[in-house]
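Please decode residue identities from the backbone states below.
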């Protein structure tokens, strides 16, 4: 990006932005897109963090009202069986942008300073979705939580550092407009690095991060005085919203109000909810603890969900008012779900559907017929599917492991996957590792615990929708078939785990 001309702040709706904003560079504004590029649609990719599928209001699972996401779904395709193959922040993002599974892109677990030495970060030379779209004439932008860089390594014994500054250039993978941070959970007092700001030039904000970011996105969409993007080009804007990630309590009072006085008996309607962290999980290390203390915040989680919906609605209203709705593909998803007490667990990073399934909605009024589709969509499939649908099949980078399912949008028949991979690894741990498959009917997982003991989990997700009973060993023929599907996926992804099944 070229140096910016003025430091005009576009954060006009906030009071505490301490730094100005770099603008779209003048050489970009002067460059004209080719005719065929003009025809391509804009892409607005919205992915709140830890937003579970059960909190899509129109599904009437969790007691939430999400009128804006409901409207988006009613006008688009809801992929009912999409999964986050490694239900964790950084691995999701790595798979999304690289189109590869974690062992191939190196983002095996969450990025922090203790894992940088293992190469656990998105490499600058990885050719990502955003790199391709920028090269093909898109104006690109990233807003919100990034969490893909490796912070400077810390010494053993020192606390891990999670956040890091992403410098302009190759680390940003083609994203030009930049209003982002690595990772922090300061929802009420977030900070950002904006465009070409140096590490010391952080923008601190006293506003709930989804609301602040919606304001930024609205400015980007309105593009006053052409300061934010080159309107000759279609845009690719990604918005990584942090809530409803923890801390759930950091949510404005206006969103908490509807849940005042409600108890967990009113709110948690899944029969698999338990209020104690099971001894089995404490011994094995499977799943996140803390249910005893954190489950009382369930109402705040749902308040975050409703607040996120409200802010997305503000941005989508502006998209429509600007006349961009028909020419914009809007994708809504999440990086993983939230257990919220199911099986006595909190948060993510397990194979159960509350963590593993994700919302996935795609709307393009001009070309995509609304409806539901039960495609077993995996995260690495998103990149090749999207590029192919945009007419850029020949630009899918070599080495991409996801599949092109763009035929689903064209109403054509195609080979549908029979299973999606479940993955868990920590680069620093030899023992803990898990792989599994999810089919339309079954979940099947081979898990090595922190003592390296092997466990097998199998659930009939149709007849036991809350995954209450582990039926491993009870249906040998089915189990054998699931085992073969897992073996096939591990073979295709050249996964070392194949010698552990
Ligand atoms: Ca996350």
């Amino acid at each position: 990006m070229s140096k910016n001309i003025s430091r005009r702040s576009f954060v006009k709706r906030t009071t505490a932005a301490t730094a100005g904003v770099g603008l779209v560079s003048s050489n970009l504004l002067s460059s004209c897109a080719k005719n065929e590029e003009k025809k391509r649609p804009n892409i607005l990719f919205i992915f709140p963090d830890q937003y579970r599928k059960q909190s899509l209001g129109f599904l009437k699972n969790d007691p939430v009202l999400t009128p804006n996401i409901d409207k988006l779904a009613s006008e688009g395709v809801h992929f009912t069986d999409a999964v986050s193959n490694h239900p964790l922040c950084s691995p999701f993002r790595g798979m999304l942008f690289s189109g590869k599974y974690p062992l191939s892109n190196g983002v095996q677990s969450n990025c922090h300073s203790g894992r940088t030495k293992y190469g656990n970060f998105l490499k600058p030379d990885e050719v990502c979705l955003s790199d391709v779209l920028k090269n093909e004439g898109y104006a690109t932008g990233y807003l919100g939580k990034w969490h893909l860089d490796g912070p400077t390594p810390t010494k053993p014994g020192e606390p891990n550092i999670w956040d890091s500054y992403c410098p302009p250039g190759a680390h940003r993978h083609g994203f030009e407009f930049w209003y982002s941070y690595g990772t922090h959970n300061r929802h009420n007092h977030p900070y950002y690095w904006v465009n070409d700001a140096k590490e010391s030039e952080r923008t601190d904000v006293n506003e709930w991060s989804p609301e602040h970011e919606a304001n930024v996105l609205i400015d980007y969409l309105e593009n006053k005085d052409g300061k934010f993007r080159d309107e000759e080009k279609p845009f690719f804007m990604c918005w990584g919203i942090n809530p409803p990630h923890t801390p759930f309590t950091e949510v404005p009072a206006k969103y908490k109000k509807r849940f005042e006085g409600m108890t967990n008996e009113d709110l948690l309607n899944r029969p698999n909810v338990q209020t104690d962290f099971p001894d089995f999980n404490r011994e094995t290390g499977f799943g996140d603890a803390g249910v005893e203390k954190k489950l009382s915040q369930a109402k705040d989680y749902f308040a975050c969900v409703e607040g996120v919906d409200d802010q997305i609605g503000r941005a989508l209203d502006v998209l429509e008012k600007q006349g961009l709705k028909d020419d914009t593909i809007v994708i809504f998803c999440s990086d993983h779900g939230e257990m919220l007490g199911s099986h006595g667990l909190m948060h993510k990073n397990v194979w159960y559907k509350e963590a593993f399934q994700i919302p996935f909605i795609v709307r393009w009024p001009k070309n995509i017929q609304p409806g539901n589709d039960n495609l077993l969509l995996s995260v690495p499939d998103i990149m090749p599917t999207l590029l192919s649908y945009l007419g850029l099949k020949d630009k899918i980078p070599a080495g991409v492991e996801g599949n092109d399912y763009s035929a689903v949008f064209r109403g054509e028949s195609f080979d549908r996957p029979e299973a999606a991979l479940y993955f868990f690894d920590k680069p620093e741990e030899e023992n803990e590792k898990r792989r599994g498959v999810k089919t339309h009917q079954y979940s099947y997982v081979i898990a090595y615990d922190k003592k390296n003991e092997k466990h097998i989990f199998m659930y009939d997700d149709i007849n036991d929708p809350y995954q209450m009973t582990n039926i491993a060993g009870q249906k040998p023929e089915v189990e054998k078939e699931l085992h073969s599907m897992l073996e096939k996926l591990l073979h295709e992804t050249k996964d070392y785990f194949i010698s552990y099944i």
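Observation: The chain has one domain: 3-418.
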